[in-house]
């Protein structure tokens, strides 16, 4: 039997406001992250998840055996800016609903897209070591946020994202890339912080600050852990001088080599809300 997709209703959902409470916003501001239930319906996740998955495996170039990979490579297949590759995936990435949540949680007047990325942790994929994302971003302040969107329910055996609560102001480890070293240093540094390691229900989406430390366990299930992410930044954030090779690469690729000190409004950074 052929199932008819009501595309109009999917698009309407992607652009319908999500009601955040004052408590939600206060939690994010204090803890550096939040997990929200029922952000997306099963229908939206299924439809756009299939498109995203098809693109991931079409564009993926990491094919060497798991035992030959680095710790970073074992953590996930990483494909970025899928919105440039497919108009329907662009509909998902440009969702006003998700951008509105990001805007209100940060308490800014609007957000731009920094970039999107799919993070697919294969069966037998290793841990994602502790890290803070903003190590990689040449941006002038901490008004950055990542939406982490599982494309299936994500039980513990799949390696859901875990957050060190209230860690967004910790200075130690901010100069560490995702690596065995970052895992070792931050596992020790963050011992005094409560970890939220709970699984994700279908439709549950997390949002975390660029400086909040997080990690994920290995995928010991027999299915890929499929996740799509969007990184948003305050629409008025500025570009700073890159301080490492990763920030230099990001400046060139995602920020269109915008002049240092100017608003990060490159051709790939539209205002989404």
Automatic annotation (TrEMBL):
<dbReference type="InterPro" id="IPR008775">
    <property type="entry name" value="Phytyl_CoA_dOase-like"/>
</dbReference>
<dbReference type="Pfam" id="PF05721">
    <property type="entry name" value="PhyH"/>
</dbReference>
<protein>
    <recommendedName>
        <fullName>Phytanoyl-CoA dioxygenase</fullName>
    </recommendedName>
</protein>
